[in-house]
């Protein structure tokens, strides 16, 4: 059964989204908070919200651009291979380049919108809504730790390739162009998860002070 999410979709979705939560009984779980503050918190952090809006637009444009470039390369390779029987090996390297940027920038973008995979089993056994908020905050913090750990090794490798000036096998382009996607992807994801944690903490404190679970 589809359960309509109470989370307000962010552009460019612009329509009701659906998140699978297996619980169908009351009380309904609290809505999931994204990295973007709203309400009073957004007013206090309006300079962050304004700066993030610029970053979001740039992320969106680049994700779309790299995705279109990747699709165009795949189409060109099919035509060259099966129509002209003359495939271009360099396309495979370029596809990895555009694919890496598409994936890692997309990782940061979906984290920003809160569209990454969520689990719903918690709300089957925990009915206290503030407890659910607390566990979600803890999971976000653990996600930040995991992102920092994996990102550290990924970024270290990327910086190594950039500093050594290694070149790709066929195109002879700097391999740092490929590896730099790791830096932007993990950095953006960690920042957005940190913003989400701040948003969740502020919401939890506000609900506790209000003495309610709503």
If you had to describe this structure to a student in words, what would you say it looks like?
The chain has 214 residues and is mainly alpha-helical. The protein has one domain. It is built from six helices and no strands. It has helices spanning 39-44, 46-82, 90-113, 122-125, 129-164, 176-209. Helix 2 (46-82) packs antiparallel against helix 3 (90-113) and helix 5 packs antiparallel against helix 6. The radius of gyration is 21 Å and the shape is elongated. The two termini are 24 Å apart.
Measured distance between first and last alpha carbons: 24 Å
Structure class? mainly alpha
Number of strands: 0
Number of domains: 1
The DSSP helix count reads: 6
Q: Which range best describes the helical content: under 10%, 10-25%, 25-40%, 40-55%, 55-70% or over 70%?
A: 55-70%
Average pLDDT number: 82
Low-confidence stretches: 1-5
Order of helices and strands: HHHHHH
Cα-atom radius of gyration: 21 Å
Tell me the β content.
under 5%
What is the overall shape? elongated
Reported for the largest beta sheet, the result is: none
Task: Record the SSE blueprint.
Layout: H1 39-44, H2 46-82, H3 90-113, H4 122-125, H5 129-164, H6 176-209
């Amino acid at each position: 059964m589809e359960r309509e999410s109470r989370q307000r979709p962010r552009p460019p979705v612009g329509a009701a989204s659906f998140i699978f939560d297996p619980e169908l009984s009351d009380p309904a779980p609290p809505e999931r908070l994204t990295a973007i503050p709203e309400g009073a918190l957004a007013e206090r952090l309006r300079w962050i919200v304004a700066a993030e809006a610029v970053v979001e637009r740039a992320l969106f444009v680049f994700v779309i651009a790299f995705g279109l470039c990747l699709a165009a390369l795949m189409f060109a390779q099919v035509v060259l291979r099966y129509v002209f029987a003359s495939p271009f090996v360099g396309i495979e390297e370029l596809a990895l380049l555009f694919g890496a940027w598409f994936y890692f920038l997309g990782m940061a973008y979906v984290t920003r919108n809160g569209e990454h995979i969520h689990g719903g089993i918690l709300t089957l056994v925990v009915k206290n809504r503030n407890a659910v908020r607390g566990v979600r905050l803890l999971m976000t913090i653990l996600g930040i730790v995991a992102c920092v750990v994996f990102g550290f090794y990924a970024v270290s490798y990327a910086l190594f390739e950039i500093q050594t000036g290694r070149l790709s096998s066929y195109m002879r382009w700097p391999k740092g162009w490929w590896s730099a996607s790791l830096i932007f992807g993990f950095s953006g994801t960690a920042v957005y998860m940190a913003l989400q944690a701040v948003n969740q903490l502020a919401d939890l404190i506000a609900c506790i002070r209000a003495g309610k679970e709503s």
